Amino acid sequence: MPVTDVRHDLDALTLTITADFAAPVARIWQVYADARQLEKVWGPPTYPATVVDHDLRPGGRVTYYMTGPEGDKHAGYWLVTAVDEPVSFAFEDGFADLDFQPNPDLPVSRNVFTFAARDGGTRATYVSTYTSAEALQQVLDMGIVEGASAAIAQIDDLLAA
Amino acid sequence: MTEESADRADAMFHALADRTRRDILRRVLAGEHSVSALAAAYDMSFAAVQKHVAVLAKAGLLTKRRRGREQLASGDVAAVRSVASMLTALEQVWRGRIARIDVLIAPDPDQED
């Protein structure tokens, strides 16, 4: 596993993940700069992503939807806030309707991705911040996440029943 | 984040990373179960199920009590809903993405020299 460090800041509602990839920075940048590559990594196998608009420039938007096992579609968007190719970029990630109009009732996370050359490979740092615990809960409840989070959503249904 | 909460997050991540444990957690959140009743629900030994229950207890996701010879387990709703467990769930998503990048950038074995 390339993940080398994970930090949970419970007060700042921030998740920081560090990963070392065996490829140069330019190659890792390409994963995000190319819509076809981005969609291969963004959604889990059970909810594959399709990237529709892709403008990785400050003020630009990246839009995508994820398709669930029953054909259900969940749309999201990135609002790109900063780009320093190929070292870093920042964006807000939110939910949208299927016409990619942002849904203001659902939470937005702030994300900063940073890539640094290290021993011939790349050290990537992913920082993701939510505005409130409720926002984080809502994101997990959206059902677009895999693994344990899917279980937690089911647990919530159970608790609500 | 303190070392203590980091350890707790690690324990939670480890506990939720296993499908059987997530299933056990769902059951005990719905109501108290004896470990032997849980064991009857899975195609594995009592000892194996008991071990899964112990991992969930160590992560603070369920609590155990004794009633005579029985061990009873119930889910800790507050712990499951805690920010730590939510960040842990989110961590799973990111780990998935990172693993997929790793696969995507792997050199094509036919082109390796």
UniProtKB/TrEMBL annotation, chain A:
InterPro entries: ASHA1/2-like_C, START-like_dom_sf. This is Activator of HSP90 ATPase. It comes from the Bacteria. CDD domains: SRPBCC_CalC_Aha1-like (cd07814). Transmembrane segments: none annotated. Residues 23-159 form the Activator of Hsp90 ATPase homologue 1/2-like C-terminal domain. Pfam families: AHSA1. Belongs to the AHA1 family.
Automatic annotation (TrEMBL), chain B:
It comes from the Bacteria. Residues 1-95 form the HTH arsR-type domain. Pfam families: HTH_20 (PF12840). GO terms for molecular function: DNA-binding transcription factor activity. InterPro entries: ArsR-like_HTH, HTH_ArsR_DNA-bd_dom, WH-like_DNA-bd_sf, WH_DNA-bd_sf. This is Putative transcriptional regulator, ArsR family protein. It comes from Pilimelia terevasa.
